[in-house]
Design a protein that fits this description.
Blueprint: H1 2-35, H2 40-68, H3 70-89, H4 97-130, H5 137-187, H6 212-232, H7 235-243, H8 248-272, H9 279-337, H10 343-372, H11 374-392, H12 397-405
């Protein structure tokens, strides 16, 4: 048990280090290419392969983790991210816009693979160490990991804007690659080789979940995260920088603060919803908080013309609080529904759905904002949240039926 906790600590620390570079890279790419004159849809395309490769990685990464252990997936994620950062730093300056977009998309594809390999490794390690966690430990650990990750990603957003100003585009990328290499070296000798490896041979066909609760929750996750990214990825930062005239530091600072605050709220969710450690009650919390979340984008839209900038920023902050609760409850549910022996399979499948949602939201963020504006992005967000809530309605019903039949 002690060695499992040590391995979990190493995985988590590595994930934190990776998260800083991932958040910094996102803001670095967005601000740099926006300053070069890229249109919103072109900016969205820069991140499409990042999100698409997350879909593929989660689908196969869970099987790889269960078959060969989480050490392989973690080390692979860190090394691929280092390669992606170095590749992007070598971007030729004489390329056309279309060629530059293609080049950046390829480097972002590597980052997408890296991000989801490390995420799946850390979330699976929680389940292995905490077990079913009926004493509330699982809920607390999942929320703490998810919350700290998002807080650090927010710090990464701020770091990306700072490094772009201080070191320039190429210098910032190489500095992050060097830092991540140190992280990789730090965990290279302390991780158990069989952490997360299933005792029984895992069939490749098991990458698709057979649990109805995992499937319904995964469907809900698609629309939950699409509802955030439809305004978060391109719409709001470009609106702040382009329409409101905010500087790179102000735009990056707000986006960073939003993510950091969102992460802190996630870490506090187990105290806020202390009775929701039971999975059926947690499913009820997902439905209730989801319904309340869906009202917030509509409220922002209705008051936007009257209160403008203050109303928008305040509404997005409130959205972040409610979204954090929803995300934390969803993250707890998937780890709770996952089988301890093959945790990475269910978690990988679930985060494949998460990546589909981010991919959809990213594309729609650029597309809707460019042709219809920020208001349309927020309306789309509310619709997606409603669909996510509908997909949470069947959660726990299969377990109740099984218990009743017994």
């Amino acid at each position: 048990m002690t060695s499992d906790i040590r391995s979990y600590g190493l995985v988590t620390a590595s994930y934190w280090g990776f998260t800083l570079t991932d958040g910094a890279l996102r803001m670095l790419v967005l601000l740099y290419f926006h300053a070069l004159g890229y249109q919103p849809l072109e900016l969205a395309f820069l991140f499409l392969l990042y999100e698409f490769m997350g879909v593929v990685t989660n689908l196969f990464g869970g099987w790889i983790g269960a078959r060969f252990g989480l050490r392989l997936t973690l080390y692979g994620g860190l090394m691929i991210q280092i390669a992606a950062l170095v590749m992007l730093s070598l971007l030729p300056s004489d390329l056309s816009i279309s060629a530059s977009v293609a080049y950046v998309m390829m480097s972002q594809a590597l980052s997408g693979i890296a991000k989801d390999l490390t995420k799946m490794s850390s979330k699976s390690a929680v389940k292995i160490v905490a077990g079913d966690g009926l004493d509330g430990r699982l809920f607390k650990w999942v929320s703490l990991l998810t919350g700290s990750k998002n807080a650090l990603k927010g710090v990464g957003f701020f770091l990306g804007g700072f490094l772009l100003t201080a070191l320039g585009f190429q210098g910032a990328l190489l500095a992050m690659a060097g830092a991540l290499l140190l992280v990789l070296m730090g965990c290279a000798f302390g991780l158990k080789s069989n952490l997360g490896k299933a005792k029984d041979k895992v069939k490749f066909t098991e990458i698709f979940s057979r649990s109805s609760d995992v499937n319904w929750l995964s469907a809900a996750r698609i629309f939950l995260f699409a509802s955030r990214d439809v305004w978060f990825v391109v719409g709001v930062p470009v609106f702040l920088a382009g329409t409101l005239g905010w500087s790179n530091a102000e735009t990056g600072g707000f986006m960073a603060s939003w993510i950091i605050g969102y992460g802190f709220v996630q870490a506090l969710v187990p105290k806020l919803l202390s009775k929701s450690r039971d999975l059926n009650r947690a499913a009820g919390s997902a439905r209730l908080w989801g319904a309340m979340l869906g009202l917030i984008p509509i409220a922002i839209v209705l008051g936007f013309d009257h209160f403008s900038q203050v109303w928008l920023i305040g509404g997005l902050i409130i959205f972040g609080v409610f979204f954090a609760v929803n995300s934390a409850v969803h993250s707890y549910l998937i780890v709770g529904y996952a089988d301890v022996e093959k945790a990475s399979l269910s978690i990988g499948f679930y985060y494949m759905a998460n990546a589909i949602g981010r991919l959809t939201g990213t594309l729609l963020s650029g597309l809707i904002f460019q042709f219809y504006g920020l208001i349309a992005c927020l309306i789309a967000s509310s619709i997606m949240i409603l669909i996510a809530v509908l997909f949470t309605l069947p959660l726990g019903k299969s377990n109740e039926q099984e218990a009743y039949s017994e």
